[in-house]
Design goal:
The structure is a homodimer of 247-residue chains.
Chain A lengths: L1 E9 L16 H13 L6 E2 L8 E11 L8 H6 L6 E9 L10 E11 L12 E3 L5 H9 L3 E4 L14 E12 L2 E8 L6 H13 L7 H8 L14 E8 L3
C-alpha cells in the first residue's frame, strides 16, 4: 500500500463542486471513476479543498491509498487518459502513509478575477465577475489591509457553517490590475465556507464607494455575516495552489 | 433606413462557425434572432469574417440595414439582452449607407495561442493548442519572417477553396511568449480559408525542428498546400479585430 498526492486542475463550470454528492456530478466522482479505470480499486479520495459549484482550480490537491504498482509520478498521465478534458491531474507523487492534507500546516492561495467593463467579454464569462461601474482600487487596497493577519472571520463566513472556530490567518491580500481585470489574490492558512467570495464581494463595495475603507474594521469586529458585502459569484474564483510546510 | 456597424465577440466552442447554415447553430443565426427581437425585422447581416467552427472572436464585425428608430450606438445594449452569454455585441454605430466591410480596405488581426506544456491546463483548453514538446521560438520567428509581405499564399489555403486570387498581404507576424503560452499574432489585409491555422501549424513544425527556417521560402514558392504543415486546431484561434481605412 502506498499513498499518492495528486495536484488537480479543473474548470468548475460543469460541476456541482469538488465533493461527491447524490444526484449531481462532481470533480471527486470523475476522479474516483478514472482511478477505478486505472487501478481497478474503489479508491477513497481525501480532498484538499471542497470548492463550490462553478469554482475553478489550478492546484487543488487530494491523497489516496492504492495497492497499484504504478509509480507515484506516473499516476497523472495514467489518470488523465480517463478524465474529461475539463479536469486534469497536473502532477502526482508518492508521499508518506501518514501524510494528510488537513493535518499538515499549509498555505492556500485563491485568486478572484473581476472584469471591469460595461459589456462582458464572452471569452472570459466563465472566469471573471463583470462589474460595469468603475472601482476605486486604492480604496479596495486600504480596505483589504484590515483583513491581513489572524482574525475571527465570522463576518466572512456563509451563514449555517458548522465549523468550530472561525479564526483564520490571512497571510497576504494582493490587488493587481491586468488589462481590464482586477485580481484579488489571497493567501492564508485556511478559509471558511465562501470566505474568499464574501471578501471579494465586500471589497467590491469598498471599490464602488459604498463606505470608507476603515469601515472594514467594524465589519470584521462585528462577527456578523450581515454586515459584509454580497457573496461574489463562483465563476470568478480559482484555487491557485497549495503549499505544504512539509511533504 | 440606416446602416449599422457592429463589433462582435464570441466564444466559438458551441457554434458551427459564423455563417448561417442548415442544420447547425451559428453566430449569425443567433445575431439575426436577437435583432428580430429588438427590431421586429428579418435582418440580413453582412459579416466581416466567416470564422470556422470553434474559432473565437474579440472583434469580428457585421453591418445591417434597419428602419428601427434605435440610435446606432444603442444597438449593442439592446441586442445583448437577447443573445446567449457566449456572444456579445461590444459596440455599434451608424455608418454611411454605402459602407460595406468587404469593399473598404481593412486590416484584420488574428491571434493563435499555443500552450507549451506536457499536460493541458483545463481552464484554457477551449482557447489554446497544447504542444507538449519544446519549441524553438527563434526558428519560428525566422520562418515567420518569410511570410511577411505580399505573396501568393496557395500553400497556406485549404484545398478546395474557390477564391480567384490567392495573393494576400501579411503586414506583420509577431511571436510573443506569455507565461507558458506562445502567441502568434498576424495582421493582414485579407486571409484565405484556414490560412492562419495552416501558418500556425507550419510554424509549429519549424519550432519542433522538422526543417530549417529557410525552407519556409520553398513552401511559399511551391504554391502547394501539401508542403505546408497541418492545420492547427480551431480553438487556438481568435479574430482579435478589424481596422477599416475609412469608416
Amino acid at each position: 500500500m502506498k499513498r499518492i498526492l495528486i495536484t488537480i486542475a479543473y474548470e468548475g463550470t460543469a460541476y456541482a463542486g469538488f465533493q461527491r454528492q447524490e444526484n449531481a456530478v462532481t470533480i471527486e466522482e470523475r476522479l474516483t471513476e478514472a482511478l477505478f479505470q486505472v487501478t481497478g480499486e474503489e479508491i477513497e479520495l481525501i480532498g484538499g479543498s471542497r470548492t463550490d459549484a462553478g469554482v475553478h482550480a489550478l492546484g487543488n490537491v487530494a491523497v489516496f491509498d492504492t495497492e497499484s504498482s504504478i509509480p507515484g509520478e506516473k499516476f497523472a498521465f495514467a489518470v488523465n487518459r480517463h478524465l474529461p478534458p475539463d479536469i486534469r491531474v497536473m502532477a502526482s507523487k508518492e508521499v508518506s502513509e501518514e501524510f494528510h492534507p488537513h493535518r499538515v500546516p499549509s498555505r492556500k492561495t485563491y485568486r478572484y478575477r473581476i472584469q471591469r467593463a460595461s459589456i462582458q467579454d464572452p471569452l472570459r464569462r466563465a472566469f471573471t465577475w463583470q462589474i460595469h461601474r468603475g472601482l476605486d482600487i486604492q480604496a479596495m487596497k486600504e480596505a483589504a489591509a484590515y483583513l491581513v493577519g489572524e482574525h475571527d472571520f465570522s463576518s466572512f463566513c456563509a451563514a449555517g457553517s458548522q465549523v468550530r472556530s472561525k479564526v483564520r490567518k490571512i497571510i497576504s491580500i494582493e490587488l493587481t490590475e491586468n488589462g481590464d481585470e482586477l485580481w484579488i489574490q489571497i493567501t492564508g492558512n485556511g478559509f471558511l465556507y465562501n470566505m474568499v467570495r464574501i471578501i471579494a464581494g465586500t471589497l467590491a463595495e469598498a471599490g464602488l464607494g459604498r463606505w470608507e475603507p476603515p469601515h472594514m474594521q467594524e465589519i470584521l469586529e462585528a462577527k456578523d455575516r450581515g454586515l459584509a458585502g454580497p457573496t461574489a459569484p463562483p465563476w470568478g474564483l480559482v484555487l491557485v495552489g497549495y503549499e505544504f510546510d512539509m511533504e
